[in-house]
Records
---
Amino acid sequence: MRRPLLSAIAGDEEIEAILSDEAQIGAMLEFERALARAEAAVGLISADAASAIASAIDRFRPDWDGLAIGMARDGVVVPELIAQLRSTVPRPFDTAVHHGATSQDVIDTALILCLSKIVPIMIDRIDRLESILSGLRDSQGSLPLMAHTRMQVALPVLVAEKLRTWSEPLARHRLALHALTDDLLVIQLGGPVGDRAGFAGHGAAVADALAAGLGLSNASAWHSSRERLVAFGGRLALLAGSLGKIGADICLLAQTEVGAIVIKGAGTSSAMAHKANPIRAEALIALARHAAGLAGSLGQAMVHENERSGSAWTLEWLTLPPLIIATGAATRLSESLLRSINFRSPDEAQPLDPV
Amino acid sequence: MRRPLLSAIAGDEEIEAILSDEAQIGAMLEFERALARAEAAVGLISADAASAIASAIDRFRPDWDGLAIGMARDGVVVPELIAQLRSTVPRPFDTAVHHGATSQDVIDTALILCLSKIVPIMIDRIDRLESILSGLRDSQGSLPLMAHTRMQVALPVLVAEKLRTWSEPLARHRLALHALTDDLLVIQLGGPVGDRAGFAGHGAAVADALAAGLGLSNASAWHSSRERLVAFGGRLALLAGSLGKIGADICLLAQTEVGAIVIKGAGTSSAMAHKANPIRAEALIALARHAAGLAGSLGQAMVHENERSGSAWTLEWLTLPPLIIATGAATRLSESLLRSINFRSPDEAQPLDPV
Amino acid sequence: MRRPLLSAIAGDEEIEAILSDEAQIGAMLEFERALARAEAAVGLISADAASAIASAIDRFRPDWDGLAIGMARDGVVVPELIAQLRSTVPRPFDTAVHHGATSQDVIDTALILCLSKIVPIMIDRIDRLESILSGLRDSQGSLPLMAHTRMQVALPVLVAEKLRTWSEPLARHRLALHALTDDLLVIQLGGPVGDRAGFAGHGAAVADALAAGLGLSNASAWHSSRERLVAFGGRLALLAGSLGKIGADICLLAQTEVGAIVIKGAGTSSAMAHKANPIRAEALIALARHAAGLAGSLGQAMVHENERSGSAWTLEWLTLPPLIIATGAATRLSESLLRSINFRSPDEAQPLDPV
Amino acid sequence: MRRPLLSAIAGDEEIEAILSDEAQIGAMLEFERALARAEAAVGLISADAASAIASAIDRFRPDWDGLAIGMARDGVVVPELIAQLRSTVPRPFDTAVHHGATSQDVIDTALILCLSKIVPIMIDRIDRLESILSGLRDSQGSLPLMAHTRMQVALPVLVAEKLRTWSEPLARHRLALHALTDDLLVIQLGGPVGDRAGFAGHGAAVADALAAGLGLSNASAWHSSRERLVAFGGRLALLAGSLGKIGADICLLAQTEVGAIVIKGAGTSSAMAHKANPIRAEALIALARHAAGLAGSLGQAMVHENERSGSAWTLEWLTLPPLIIATGAATRLSESLLRSINFRSPDEAQPLDPV
């Protein structure tokens, strides 16, 4: 469901575009193109077939209504997509499309292709956040700040100490995203039951060539082993959580009575003109909690039945993309928010006149 | 984010339309119209002002881009919406718009107006499901069926017994939805801090008239008391859970080796022509698990800070609508699925030749 | 696992005792006694058998090690418990024990018997909380209090308005617990596959007599329909959520810089002598979030497979009791906390000297 | 709350002992001993003081009732524990106990010391599971097995292919646990507000020596940055999820009608003598779902307020230990279960006579 108004806060256009139906269908077609080429390289299909398939994909325009009908019927879009694509490939090459593969090979690899674009975006955004925090440290790090523990005034620290606690987890998230990249960005290729039996003994070679063609790492089939995706989702939820913690700090320090942070461009109220609402900071908390919940639900999708679970897989689709978008939104809002805060030394921090 | 392909399974057009931005903005305008009328009735604003506001609302076309910008800035759409609306109301009546109210009054009441359409739809759908189950009982209830406990063959029962276990919870959900209706479908009217101080002593009378005007029940302000909405979400998750249980049963009984249920119109496979995949039944399981997770996250939104929590409220927006839609989709799929199943007596149930 | 130190905050001795293994085994024996009596009344077993069973139960002392071994072997304690009990009933009456029933009849009914003690405790505690809040309203309701929305100073209200927002949800929880009592406190009696076939046509009569004997309501078998229990858990999570909201308010209002609430008996710090930590208020937030999460997980237990799911049922045991205890702890802490707060009018509320 | 019967399935004695109050208090005392030694090494306290503290710790027997009272009062056990310990250290050395540290330094480091024992146990158990699976591959890998996708018969594979899908994720979990070890097993040392100000400029040196003394890695203070612990919990939930997937497969393949796996020592029924219930396999599913839910709730604990959140920290205590134990139980059950399964070739797999 489209909710453009909510998306103004909780959306992320850049990442949503990468996860859109259009982008995912596009990635599926890239899979089919690369598969045909890989199969031609090992002689499973002819070079002419691979060329015909590639040409057809170049020209292919899906019948979207048909895809939706196929999705509702089959629970996956692939049977209908392949049928549509085949109908545009001249005989006898049409039967070479999708040779030996299964729907899950296409869909999972397409998702990974999308993630291969999202992971570097997330890393870039973390880099930028670290850079903004580093700038804040340079400009405001030597200011005094009252620390609070258990919601009570504790002892004074420097602003630099606060910024350290915001920045260090981001550095760890960056490292973790780098570390999981190789393991995550792998092809899916198993055929109907995961054993690559449909590749007539050439499964390993096809997989090698497919991975090379798509710029992904190779891996044995993981149709029913989803821990990589769930781990990725979990890391995103951690990232959203660290940003939610920054949001909580900013909300608390920007309280009228505390006044240790001033937010430029804070939100207005329909009823109280004096309000300066920490909208983005609050949204970071909401996104962190939403992401944590989605990560928990995504974890339920680990329990696949046998070689492929339609229910667990569908649950993954229902939870992982919103989790990615929520985390994307959190990084986006964090950048905007951190660019707009100023710490105030305690003597400046007089409570505003509330009315 | 729009995901039309996934929505072909997990969406619900009828309910999504009721929750759309357009519908919610429309409901917000109904609130402002009814508020003006109620305030005119008690003399807080003039009858002319109320008329001018009503006329302006009749003609009002929101600037959607402006609303999105306002949402991003203020965390709520209302300040910008009111500003847009006021600009279309002739002076001096423009200042009478939204008199004494706060953003949350508008947004929460608008949500409740939307829910007032959704609750009867859910009840109607439950009615239909019960009716389909009743028909199945009439036509197939006397067939024998092997019962299974703990994933093992137990003892034979009648199909009627199975149908009883599917139907009775639905009857209880129907009763529960009826029971919570009066408590749920209430106005929100508190003004900026919930005490109706902005209505110059006429708060109770305005609330009475507003409730009457909108066809909702009256209630004291509940800005920071969200248990009604969370309870509603919880009930939907229970409903989705009961439907997920039906889905699990159908998946298990339609297994090739069990063959106790045959599903007409089962899904096809891109690789295995003999497959008859229980798509809708699997989707019911996925939706049940998604709904349970969302209900848990929605529960996190109970912890409002003071008179209004931007973070908890935003979390509610992130979780309740998807939960409603998931449950709607589950009811929709259940109807289609239950219309397409046939129980087979054990002697008919020979395992299909798998290849 | 026992964690007495954590239980000092997050435990509830009174409720834990009701849910203890000893109490649940005791309730199972009450079920067997009442079942025998009910079966004797309809002539399924002899009156002598029922007497012999009742006498044996009076004297019965379980072999706990044996029960644990049986539990590990069978996934339920009942086969071993019945074997132990039968061995103490003189022949030929031993075979009359547990006649026609199944493990789930015993375990579920025993749980309901425990809940029949817990529900009134929860209602009593809510009554007490409402009474404390009413006393606060009498003594402090007319004090001024600065309201806060979105973590910012909003407008002044009376303390009575704050107390209203704390109290009204409790009243609704009380009503809801009353309303669900009749539906929740029902026997479970279905026999192995839920159809009461083992009672030789006397199923309805046995169920009537069993319900009467145990002081519970009658119901058809609900082995695989868990929405009553999950709804109960959901209501507890809502209650914990409302108390968590009170905790959040108290944490925020007791902040050093705000000083609008003073907590008597606040916690001390190992390092900062000036601290007055709002321990119980913070624990209320933690318990609310824990309860919401457990309620979400409990919702996953709705998806029973066929006539009995060992996995879903076990998940229920893993989640419902901790959820009940967390809510119990929240009610217990709330009472203590609300008895120890004082609102301070703004002129008294000077920030404490932090060091 | 102790629940020995449920623990017979869902508990883990070895791991519970490591997380017990006794073990955690013991680890806290090791922290204080090592801190004193580290502080003596840099001259912050005298060598005599460190010796006196070490001797006192050797002889120290906590007053457990007093600790529970302190816990309830302070929300952490440390102020009372330190007071008890100090009372056993001769003057003037008593004041040297806990010098410059804060409760969270003690509690978090003690938890990490416990985890430093648990991580290798988990890795060992994974090793054992992989070894059992390897043995199964050797003995039964060449048997045919019907694969199932979307709950339907798909195509035949070898048992070795099934075992591959069970084993490969375990290898990845092992690697991941190794990879996170260095990052996870770090000291916590920050003093009251995390900046080590109480160590008179010797903070870094004290931390070095403390880490060396405890056999942990060094790290800057992470009082309010919990992503390491939450990531650890997330990895455990993934492990539990992979084991839950094995459990689901075994439940499905051991179904009476499928009969592709036979489980030795399956559970008995109180009512149906022919049943062979896949107790451990079902419990694996329940534990996977419980772990996923707990991981989601643990994620809520990322949102710390400022320098220390009592509520988020308490939530961590409520969720991480049960998550660890659930995963431990899952590894324990998996070992027992995998040692007791036998695949049956399709011609052997005749449905058992159900009654």
Note: Chain B has twelve helices and four strands.
---
Amino acid sequence: MTAAGIPAAEIGRLVVRCPDRPGIVSTVSSFLTAAGANILSLDQHATEQRGGTFFQRTEFHLPGLHEQLPSLRAAFDAEVATPLGMEATLTAAATPKRLGIMVSKLDHCLLDLLWRTQRGELDVTVEVVVSNHPDLAPAVEQFGVPFVHVPVTPETKPEAEARQAELLRGLDLVVLARYMQIVSGELLAAVGAPMINIHHSFLPAFVGAVPYRRAKERGVKIVGATAHYVTEDLDEGPIIEQDVVRVDHRHSAADLTRLGADVERSVLSRAVRWHCEDRVLRDGATTIVF
Amino acid sequence: MTAAGIPAAEIGRLVVRCPDRPGIVSTVSSFLTAAGANILSLDQHATEQRGGTFFQRTEFHLPGLHEQLPSLRAAFDAEVATPLGMEATLTAAATPKRLGIMVSKLDHCLLDLLWRTQRGELDVTVEVVVSNHPDLAPAVEQFGVPFVHVPVTPETKPEAEARQAELLRGLDLVVLARYMQIVSGELLAAVGAPMINIHHSFLPAFVGAVPYRRAKERGVKIVGATAHYVTEDLDEGPIIEQDVVRVDHRHSAADLTRLGADVERSVLSRAVRWHCEDRVLRDGATTIVF
Amino acid sequence: MTAAGIPAAEIGRLVVRCPDRPGIVSTVSSFLTAAGANILSLDQHATEQRGGTFFQRTEFHLPGLHEQLPSLRAAFDAEVATPLGMEATLTAAATPKRLGIMVSKLDHCLLDLLWRTQRGELDVTVEVVVSNHPDLAPAVEQFGVPFVHVPVTPETKPEAEARQAELLRGLDLVVLARYMQIVSGELLAAVGAPMINIHHSFLPAFVGAVPYRRAKERGVKIVGATAHYVTEDLDEGPIIEQDVVRVDHRHSAADLTRLGADVERSVLSRAVRWHCEDRVLRDGATTIVF
Amino acid sequence: MTAAGIPAAEIGRLVVRCPDRPGIVSTVSSFLTAAGANILSLDQHATEQRGGTFFQRTEFHLPGLHEQLPSLRAAFDAEVATPLGMEATLTAAATPKRLGIMVSKLDHCLLDLLWRTQRGELDVTVEVVVSNHPDLAPAVEQFGVPFVHVPVTPETKPEAEARQAELLRGLDLVVLARYMQIVSGELLAAVGAPMINIHHSFLPAFVGAVPYRRAKERGVKIVGATAHYVTEDLDEGPIIEQDVVRVDHRHSAADLTRLGADVERSVLSRAVRWHCEDRVLRDGATTIVF
């Protein structure tokens, strides 16, 4: 899905959102064409046919993008976004998103993100890994990524969250890669970036703790995992991606945990990839994934 | 999975359940061998390694099975089942299960069951279709199956259930193929046969009404269906089979309904097939599917 | 994916194909906007970033579409298609495609298409079913669809194909729903409409005859089905859709046939649906499915 | 699927294969029961109902297994295996299989095997990694596993294979984790252990080189991977496991390679796990996976 043969530095992404009305596709694409850009891909969606919200993601090729980006943003705001009441984000594909990762003791999601980053499959830089346990420090440091141990106890939670916010503030995305503590609304606000969490069930089934044990007790024939944006309501944030795996009566709860781990790491990596390619747009309690 | 080259009339199935203890496989298989039977397939499961429950399904070839069945049952009870505190069922594969189907207005699950029966894929006889609406009478009658319209209103529910029980009593299995009324504990008891229901979500997600609409609102990326035994607790019965299909933001609730219908008919048909082949054993709130 | 709340009569589809160059999205969308149309959905694809072929499908809302269609077509040809060297098709969503179906003795794919048409899931009219065997006449006639038996033997193949061409000429699409005869290039040309075939393997595996038996012999763990456009090269036409199902050593070749039949009917129905919604564009030996 | 609460040292596995005849299940299970063993799980399969080959895998609990293993083997051979013309393998679950891995430059399959071994998910010891390139030495050494670089050129192939055989002889299993050289029949014989290869297509589709590029050219909608035993006929060995992932026209050949890599590592890890649990039995050109 990358633009073969075009230097990444010349590829831009324009993501917009506004009340639906006729002519938006035409207006946005005409603006880009007039600016000398060639549209590489365009996805759009309207939540309802009349009176809904309109979303569009456009990837385009524009030689000299890097130099023109500020003026292009200003022109788009003045000529298109402001008149149409549009929220717009214009980014350069060549600028990798800067990530922070929070983790506890389980390594499978964390390692998958670090591997994919190392081999260039995820176009991001991992700035820091923050954990409430020291166990994964050696694994992280092998990738040349800073690891910071911030212990969390009920008594020290406010100070711990202050330290976490300090470490994570200013990043583009924070990923909870099996971080087993509840993130408070305060931390979410203090970090100021979107957070993506992986939940180890196909939500809304098995909201809350020990989902694999409860899945075993309920006798389901399929278990899964869900990547979602973090909101103040635990396990209720907008879902980005889900996947599942078949199980049967011969699988113990430990087997479900093992099989589920593979689904978790795939689902989380896909969600992070799509987010970092500016493909995921929030629409209330749900998402649009272009 | 059928026994190629062996007359169906000579194939028997022995399903047992008892407290786990050493030697059961050996005892049961030695009994069958001594009786002149050849074991075609054997599946067993113990819920825990020590102190649990043991389940086994054995399919065997025995010339003259039909004539020997009563004496074989008596001998097995006396020599094996009673000494080991075992529940045992010994059936002839050649005797098709006798089914009743309950349905409301949606035809996709019903038609799939009737069509698979007609082409010999489901080895059952459908004795009657009972519906609270008259709409599907012509479709059912084309298959040569009796259709009985039993209207149900809040006022007439007791009489209606009495009539339903009368129609369905004595059958081997009742299938709720998108029957949109709650089945009371009284009806369940009066029918006296297992009932299988298809629920249009991957339980325990979206228990209750309008699951596809709620799936759309929650923004899930996967929808599914669940076939389960009916118990007095709505949507809480032991799950036999589940399956799912991927969806995205472009799908309306109506699209989910359409895509889900394909999953529902597949899942229900598989569950009915497995039940009728004596492959499904209840284990508390869950099932074992051999 | 339908336009909720908008009369189908006011929905149009514009599908275009041309050498890629900057400005096409803008030109096409500006034309539609100027004509008073509101774009409901837009998908585009370029085969390579430079010097490739560009494809676009646009669904739009235009009150009075039916009356304006001829003038809209003429205007688009003059102002856009001809200047840009574009092939363009402009259709009304309210006009169902007219289908012919060819079949031999297996009913599962045929019945699935007829059921879906009957319940409004496939927006088509089935004009005729042509078979080289008489067996499926009663099943077809229950749907009120004409059934024509055209026997085919090696000696009578030319006359048979002449009769088939006569029955199928002038339709929008011909579906081979497990038609077990090879269609000659002459028949393909004489019919003059696209043909979609279902092959009972995941092509290019098991090209040719008896794929399930060969799948059993090769010991594959997955079997599948492929819907593709018919070309003169057997089993080599552009693939529209594929799907698979897991199998294991316990499944006989007959089991593969049974399990595969469910995949075949789903895959073929999806391919036909997408084709009839003008979502499938040929790109050499492959397809683009919007 | 592990035996909760039972020391691994007391768990044995008996895998047998012989001409099918009545009474085998009974004979084998009676032998085990008489020896004081409790059967934990039993899977059996007969290739045809009459005159075929019979396969059985039994997992059992026997206190003192370690000490009794030699005498148990001798007794089973004398009392059961020899009289019935049976090939039998009796192993202790607590004895991990000793693995060698061959690899070239791609790390995803190798890393997945090493990581699963490290976290105890694969119950094996990796004795050595042999590569025809030096690139992956640091990655392997982080896991504390010896890495040996054995360059291979057309001229040096015989010497290289001699060196490889020396390194790999005496192991229980050799895994080709994207090893991009053809293994000769001589090497296979000299190593003397089973070899499992991962092929990056769903065989028999795209036998041979560059399968993802050919998949892109053919326009398939699904790509996959296949783990199989290595035989002298390239890509023709018995298939152990396969899996697939959906793709569409927007995916480049590079995207297929990336998406396929995830399937490859899962499929290979499952095949290796099952082999090492003595679950995979060869049956001519196919496998039985219990």
Note: Residues 27 and 146 of chain B are 45 Å apart (CA to CA).
